């Protein structure tokens, strides 16, 4: 019985390791969900996808796209953006809710958005100064973090 239990545990450990090793896979841009392809084409025109990865976990699937200028975009399984990190580039504002850009322009003119992330029912926005602004589902500024 002890031998069987040891074998079963070893098999389970090997299975989990094998599953975890196969989570990331490089794919072609045209294998992204249509919504993700359209998002990149519309808001990041002139920039090409240099790396597209499919990341499968037990509970979710995400797509990670790196553009030719270094911008990184994460999409959920439906192709909706989760996180956009412009790194050292100019962030296009067309996909960011207008109330967020209006609030940030009024309070932090000249400090461009470098990253935006959907957080639960709200948004986390990082400015080039490093300041992080958090917005709720009603697009109201609720707090800052630095």
UniProtKB/TrEMBL annotation:
Q: Which residues form the Putative beta-lactamase-inhibitor-like PepSY-like domain?
A: 62-142
Q: At the top level of its lineage, which domain of life is listed?
A: Bacteria
* Database matches in InterPro entries: PepSY-like
Q: Which UniProt keywords apply?
A: Signal
Q: Which residues form the signal peptide?
A: 1-21
Q: Does the keyword Zinc-finger apply?
A: no
The name on file for this protein is Putative beta-lactamase-inhibitor-like PepSY-like domain-containing protein
């Amino acid at each position: 019985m002890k031998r069987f239990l040891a074998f079963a545990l070893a098999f389970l450990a090997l299975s989990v390791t094998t599953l975890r090793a196969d989570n990331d896979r490089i794919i072609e841009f045209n294998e992204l969900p249509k919504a993700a392809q359209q998002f990149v084409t519309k808001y990041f025109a002139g920039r090409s996808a240099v790396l597209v990865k499919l990341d499968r976990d037990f509970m979710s699937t995400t797509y990670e796209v790196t553009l030719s200028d270094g911008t990184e975009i994460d999409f959920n399984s439906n192709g909706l953006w989760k996180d956009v990190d412009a790194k050292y580039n100019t962030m296009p504002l067309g996909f960011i809710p207008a109330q967020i850009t209006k609030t940030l322009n009024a309070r932090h003119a000249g400090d461009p958005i470098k990253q935006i992330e959907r957080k639960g029912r709200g948004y986390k926005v990082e400015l080039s100064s490093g300041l992080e602004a958090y917005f709720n589902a009603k697009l109201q500024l609720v707090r800052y973090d630095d």
